């Protein structure tokens, strides 16, 4: 084995990261990553959180309640989606599984399952000696900022026709997306939001660690009477919320439990410490 120094690209932008590793059979096994990807600080403050899951009053599907969050704490999140260049280091280290995607180091890593994203977060935490994790749906809505689209129907009455709401939801999500965009765009191509977080409006839906909830509400539409949690299905956030089975990498070929299937599944991480 020969000891070498490796160079890579971080945060989707050109930058040099010192990676010390060993070259064996043309593979680079990084020992430690010393430079962190670009992050954005999301400031503390109040905001309205649209709860995630399926909510009903009796047998009728209703809007998820809007929860007013007071003094939400500040946190750090990656500015860009995890790129192919970054993910490939985890693959080379024998921790992450290779996924099928158009190869280009300047593209976001797509075709990612919840398991893939979690494995990368654990690996990256060890390499950087910092705690990285997937965001919650609440955190995602917070850092989506002015590019978050709150999809709701108000008092849409479906007592006589339960399919009315489902059809309206499907039409709303379809109109929002116009049509599937199955071409990956370079990191940063969709610009930044009011916080400086990039590509919120892209065709990448982001995995969160939030489970799927089926919730029974009281007649006030706010008080929770019963809640069923299914953590084999997770919320993914993008142009709209969808719920995807954890092991699925491409929701367009199956595995979308609720909602119109996302174009691509990718991720970014929150930095805890």
Features:
about 270 residues; alpha+beta; 16 strands; about 15% helix; about 35% strand; disordered N terminus
Q: What do you see in this structure?
A:
By secondary structure, this protein is an alpha+beta fold. The protein has one domain (2-271): Alpha-Beta Complex (paralog of FGE (formylglycine-generating enzyme)). The chain has helices at 84-92, 114-128, 137-144, 163-177, and strands at 2-6, 19-24, 27-33, 39-42, 45-50, 54-57, 60-62, 66-72, 75-78, 132-133, 204-217, 224-237, 241-245, 256-258, 264-266, 270-271. The strands form four sheets. Strands 6, 7, 11, 12, 13, 14 and 15 form a seven-stranded mixed β-sheet that branches. A four-stranded antiparallel β-sheet has the order 4-9-16-10. Strands 1-2-3 form a three-stranded antiparallel β-sheet. β12 (224-237) and β13 (241-245) form a beta hairpin. The longest helix is centred in the middle third of the chain and has 15 residues, at 114-128. The protein is globular.
CATH class descriptor name: Alpha Beta
Q: Classify the fold: give the CATH topology.
A: paralog of FGE (formylglycine-generating enzyme)
Estimate nothing, just give the exact number of structural domains. 1
Largest sheet: 7 strands, mixed
Binned, the helix content reads 10-25%
Count of strand segments? 16
- Rg from Cα: 20 Å
CATH hierarchy: architecture: Alpha-Beta Complex
Helix/strand-derived category reads: alpha+beta
Classify the beta-strand content into a percent band: 25-35%
Mean pLDDT: 82
Low-confidence stretches: 1-28
In N-to-C order, the SSE pattern is: EEEEEEEEEHHEHHEEEEEE
């Amino acid at each position: 084995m020969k000891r070498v120094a490796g160079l890579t690209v971080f945060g989707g932008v050109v930058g040099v990261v010192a990676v010390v590793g060993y070259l064996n059979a043309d593979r680079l096994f990084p020992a430690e990553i010393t430079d962190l990807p670009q992050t954005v600080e999301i400031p503390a403050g109040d905001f309205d959180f649209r709860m995630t899951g399926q909510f009903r009053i009796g047998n009728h599907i209703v809007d998820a309640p809007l929860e007013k969050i007071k003094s939400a704490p500040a946190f750090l999140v990656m500015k860009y989606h995890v790129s192919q260049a970054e993910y490939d280091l985890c693959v080379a280290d024998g921790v992450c599984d290779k996924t099928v995607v158009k190869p280009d180091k300047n593209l976001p890593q797509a075709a990612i399952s919840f398991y893939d994203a979690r494995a990368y977060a654990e690996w990256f935490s060890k390499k950087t000696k910092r705690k990285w994790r997937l965001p919650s749906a609440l955190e995602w809505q917070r850092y989506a900022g002015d590019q978050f689209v709150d999809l709701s129907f108000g008092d849409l009455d479906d007592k006589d026709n339960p399919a009315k709401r489902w059809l309206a939801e499907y039409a709303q999500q379809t109109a929002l997306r116009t049509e599937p965009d199955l071409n990956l765009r370079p990191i940063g191509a969709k610009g930044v939001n009011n916080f400086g977080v990039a590509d919120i409006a892209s065709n990448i839906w982001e995995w969160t660690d939030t489970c799927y909830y089926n919730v029974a509400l009281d007649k006030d539409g706010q008080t929770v009477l019963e809640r069923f949690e299914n953590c084999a299905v997770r919320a993914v956030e993008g142009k709209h919320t969808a719920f995807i089975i954890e092991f699925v990498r491409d929701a367009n070929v199956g595995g979308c439990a609720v909602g119109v299937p996302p174009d691509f599944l990718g991720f970014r991480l929150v930095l805890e410490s």
